[in-house]
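Running this now, will post back.
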Amino acid sequence: MIYADNENINPNKYSDIRSGSSRSIPINNDDVGNLLSNISSKNLSYRSSFSESTNGNFKENEELLNSIESWYSRALDLVGLNFSNPLETYGTYFNKNMQTLGLDPQRPGNSYVFFTRPDINLSRSTKGFSPFFDYIMTTEIGNYVAEYLQYPNVEDTKVMLDKKYKTDCPFDPLKTNLCKEISGVKDIVLDSFETTGDFMGHQLTYATGADGYDSIGEVTISFADTLLSPVFLSHFLLIQYIHEVARGEYWPKYVYLARRIIDYTISIYIFKLSEDNKTILRWGRLCGCYPINIPLDSLNYSNEVKLDELDNLSITYKYNFWEPMNPRTFIDFNKLMYPLSMKGMTGALWDKNVNPELYGSLELKEPYHPEKLVESLDVEELSRNETPWGKYPLIIGNKLIFV
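Update: finished.
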């Protein structure tokens, strides 16, 4: 039971403690005591019915609950604890006690990474680019990893894989689900210029921009490999392909040769979400990525059994462009996912979330209009997943959802 009882409130309880390890201790006891005492003196007529409520239904006491919350919030705001609105308090007033009150930390939620697929040449009309590829394609695991080394729904392909393993998502769910960590992206660092100084030796410094942070670099990506080593085999096949193409012993598809497009590079999208696991707080994209190494230390012989020696895989990727916090990332992400996410919204889900007047024709014909879809989606309904698995990620406003 909760009682708003004045005799339980002692404003002088912490009179001798003004600072220390506990940042939840009131600073101005008189003001806090006066405000909190109003909780017990206001709406006392509700006390008996409130204390007798044992079934969890407090609708009849909503006024008292709102009053308690309002007065308690004001009390905390008065001493700098920012219970109701930390942004308003931090951005409006100055803390005279010069204490950093960390009672409103930014609580991160999930982090997501999405790997796009390359589109290497696995057409039926060409011969295998390596003996290992010819061998591995006779196995189910070989067909499985090769499926994600090309765009979805490729017709002229050597891959003969059961449909239960296939997905028409443009991202690679294998690498996305098994990625543990990405490290090594560049910080934005301003370059500076310093003058030679005057006759008194005084110098000035100027910022000259931050050119170069978004150009070529490399990152280290850690994966947790799983049964039959699909992540290892996928990277091994891709590096074999890159090696053979670079030597001129194999060739990409004609469309990429004609348009001078590199077919083995991918993009990596990184999202950091808030504690609601929907709102995107920070994001970035690595473009033109490809692996440059395959760790083979697991092939070193030892008669000692190491249970995790095949599980952890660390691979270095080169990238050509690094785009942190660029809104264009959302647009490009949705351009990949928008047609497929519409395909996943069928039946009642479609009828409930898509307004035909805003969307226009329900037939998915080019050009697509994602901005009209955004106006008609119920984000809360779409993000209320019954299972931990989602098929089509989509960005609505600043929220990452799965449909």
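The first helix runs from residue 29 to 41. More later if anyone needs it.
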